[in-house]
Amino acid sequence: MEYRELGSTGLKVSEISFGTWAIGGGWGQVNDEESFKALQRAMDAGVNFFDTADVYGDGHGEEVVGKATKGLEGKVHIATKFCRQGDIHDPNNYAEAAVRKYCEDSLRRLQREAIDLYQVHCPATQILRDGAVFEVLDKLQAEGKIRHYGVSVETVEEGLISLQYPNVKAIQFIYNIFRQKPEQELFPKAKQQGVGILVRLPLASGLLTGKFKEDTAFEADDHRNFNQNGESFNVGETFAGLPFRKGVKLSRQLAWIAEGRGSMTRAALRWILDNPHISCVIPGFKNTEQVEDNLAAADVPSFTVEERQRLAAFYEQEVRDHIRGPY
């Protein structure tokens, strides 16, 4: 396992780390026994960073991660997120009393005395412009409840706004072969300012595994069923904002990336890891097999300059105009 600096936090995190939305809830049925086995396999392989949120299974994701990493404080770092249990547009949702309660509830579920990275979870743009929430986070940091803080954002504009606040040490963003926009301006500026980049949804909700067909059906409690068109939250969080059937067709055009790399999954993650601005990629998982496949991305060949140019042209010509929602 290779490790990278998480911006200027002083933390070194495994370049392949993991997100826990899928084992918390919202991606169909969960099996805690399988989740614990998968988490242990990841840690045995050197993974030392997990990202979760208080809304993943209404706190269940935090509880699972907390139990799996109990006693590993200082060795295994945990990032979690807050604000989406309330109205993301309401300033009161970011006031000290509210944020303090979110934080203390997360600490209890995680069974920790401090959160390594506490992130505002895709707030309304105006909240970022106002900036009052960062003053609250400064207080929690001074008290030792959080070590560092950052923001998970939906758009490049929100990322650039976040970079205006000196104590924001990490930005979490959707980035994959279908979503290449942030590499143009946001990532270089973040790197210049010592701000870490966490990449979520690197496989575009599974599209970039190449396993889906146009008639693939998802469970009722899977967001890939109930949020395909942004019915419940930002449309970009599901299939990178692409209409599902269009995304399936586009993924077929990318089958070539697996040549010499074992699978599209490994290739898609390798493409992200090849970007020097990235601190770590945080794919999701539901079982040990998926953890193994994701980890294998570290050992497959990097993309050549010509291949990256081909994928950049593919994004510009075939993908970009089909992405829905601001990004």
UniProtKB/TrEMBL annotation:
InterPro entries: AKR (IPR020471), AKR2_Oxidoreductase (IPR053135), NAD(P)_OxRdtase_dom_sf (IPR036812), NADP_OxRdtase_dom (IPR023210). It comes from the Bacteria. It comes from Xylanibacillus composti. Pfam families: Aldo_ket_red (PF00248). This is Aldo/keto reductase. PANTHER family: D-THREO-ALDOSE 1-DEHYDROGENASE, NADP-DEPENDENT OXIDOREDUCTASE DOMAIN-CONTAINING PROTEIN. GO terms for molecular function: oxidoreductase activity. Residues 15-315 form the NADP-dependent oxidoreductase domain.
